[in-house]
Amino acid sequence: MHSRILKSAMILACMIGLSACETMNLPQVALPEVFSGNAGHKVALADGLEFTLPAAPWDEDETIDVVQQVEATWNNQTQSGTTTFQGRINIQSDRAQIVLIDDLGRRAVEIDWTAQEIVIQNANWLPQEFDTKRLLADIVMTYWPLDAVEDALPDNMSVHEGFGERTIRLDDTGRKYATIEHPIKDVWQGQAILENQQFNYRIKINSIRTGN
Predict the structure, then answer these.
(1) Buried b (16+ CB within 10 A) or exposed e, 157-177
(2) At the N or C end, where does the chain have fewer CB atoms within 10 A?
(3) How far is the CA of 92 from the CAs of 44, 49, 96, in angstroms?
(4) Which domains does the chain have, with CATH numbers?
């Protein structure tokens, strides 16, 4: 009973926050970036490493609709910190839509991904270093089926999946690029953690399906 109440409360809180962002006047949202064609589906992971997002956002029959609590932590040569967001992801065969809002209820990121183009709208208060396409690649690495991730990686990178864990490596050195832990039974229900060893950041995501 307690878990059902907690789940309902989390869904309600996220839905209220996301709905409020959709109806507020948000002058701090920058003009959208539109990435069209094959080049628009390329994401630079590092120098010489390109991740090719699937041409069609979703190749499964199941429709995905989840709310999420996201915590990102980073520690590199120039800065370190932690930030949290609430998220909503809706995925159908022809479209994936992702919205992130911050703890103040401000819309931070909106992604609208179709086979034709990817439209990204970031709030202008986000730091310039925030790479939304990299975030989208991280989401695909974490949640998409293994074969989709294999196809998306460049030839000199590989992914291996074990019991609730994925490891992405640089084949020329054998070094880990990222490790991912995710729920075994239902990847969209529960906690997933992506740790990027290449750039020393960590994303922890707690997901709850809205349809159950």
Answers:
(1) bbbeeeeeebebbbeeeeeeb
(2) N
(3) 25, 28, 6
(4) 2-209 (2.50.20)
Q: In the beta sheet, which residues pair with residue 72?
A: 83, 203
Instruction: Label residue 37 left, alpha or beta by phi (over 0 means left) and psi (-120 to 50 means alpha).
Output: left
| pLDDT value of position 15 | 40
Return d(Cα 144, Cα 160) in angstroms, integer. 14
The structure's pTM equals 0.83
**Consecutive 10-residue averages of pLDDT for the chain (212 residues):** 40 41 45 69 91 90 95 86 94 94 94 92 88 95 96 96 96 94 97 96 97 62
Predicted confidence at residue 26, as pLDDT, reads 41
CB atoms within 10 A of CB 37: 9
Distance CA 160, CA 27 (A): 44
